[in-house]
Design a protein that fits this description.
By secondary structure, the protein is mainly alpha-helical. The chain is 67% helix and 4% strand. It is built from 17 helices and 3 strands. Helix 2 packs across helix 3 and helix 14 runs antiparallel to helix 16. Strands 1-3-2 form a 3-stranded antiparallel β-sheet. A hairpin with a 6-residue loop joins strand 2 and strand 3.
Length: 278
């Protein structure tokens, strides 16, 4: 079998964009040509005309009476599809799609983080990691890219340059207005639990870094203990300052959505306390 090329032909991908959108949205369900045509709102003949291009992106199950297709999830195909959605100014469809979430579910991010950072698994479960990733993806999924560039600028190179400026602005807006999946009281408590876990995780990591400071290692035990406590108190102060700022932002989002935010919720460690959990 000839290895697939990682060259991205945007014109070729754009010609089957409507089918890719359907396949991304239906992942990991395999579709027949008839189902793909129905969901894309076209005739089966239209799908047949693009059959080779569509199949080049899919794993194909050749049955006697019914061929079914599902998008491949390897790096080459993933990169092509991601680039297509970005070039079309529709990254939100990609980041929030079942295809993206399916890829995420197989990357074993929790296991990799747990192996790389000793303190990670002490505070975070696999479900916690998935929740954190969803927050990140939903925020990226809210990137607002105007379609006027694609509509008014016909030259592909000019359009790409202008689109890059718009992405720069969009990412700046995203950082200042992080989108939180906060629609219910349950969502609020989940976010605040993540806040608490992140706080204790950061504190543990900082503690380990301080323990390895050469200046402290060279001190007598009585002095080392005293200085160590001072360092930890300073770290705790600044961490609480930053996390309190995050809590204020969560509270503002909750209030905008009429979700009750109790005064006790501002306390870091209210939903998760590492000392009580251990």
């Amino acid at each position: 079998m000839r290895p697939q090329s990682d060259t991205i032909d945007l014109d070729e991908l754009r010609s089957i964009m409507r089918y890719i959108e359907v396949l991304v949205g239906e992942y990991p369900n395999a579709l027949s040509s008839k189902e793909l045509a129905e969901k894309a709102g076209v005739s089966r003949a239209s799908v047949s005309k693009q059959k080779l291009r569509i199949r080049s992106l899919c794993n194909v199950d050749e049955l006697v009476y019914n061929t079914r297709m599902v998008l491949k999830s390897d790096t080459v195909i993933f990169k092509k599809i991601a680039f297509l959605f970005f070039s079309e100014g529709t990254p939100s469809k990609f980041f929030s799609s079942p295809y993206m979430l399916g890829i995420l579910g197989r990357t074993k991010i929790h296991e990799e983080l747990s192996k790389s950072i000793d303190e990670y698994s002490k505070h975070f479960t696999k479900q916690d990691t998935e929740n954190l990733m969803l927050i990140i993806l939903k925020s990226l999924g809210k990137l607002k890219i105007l379609n006027v560039i694609r509509e008014k600028v016909s030259d592909p190179e000019q359009r790409t340059i202008l689109l890059s400026f718009q992405y720069a602005q969009a990412f700046g807006d995203l950082l200042n207005n992080l989108d939180l999946p906060l629609n219910t009281d349950k969502d609020l408590k989940l976010l605040l639990t993540m806040r608490d876990k992140l706080f204790y995780f950061a504190k543990d990591v900082c503690r380990r870094l301080v323990e390895n400071v050469s200046i402290l290692k060279s001190l007598p035990n009585n002095k080392k203990s005293r200085y160590f406590e001072v360092y930890l108190e300073t770290i705790d102060f600044y961490l609480r300052k930053y996390f309190n700022s995050g809590t204020t932002y969560i509270k503002q989002v909750a209030e905008r959505k009429d979700i009750p935010f109790k005064n006790t919720y501002t306390e870091i460690g209210y939903f998760y306390n590492a000392k009580l959990a251990s």
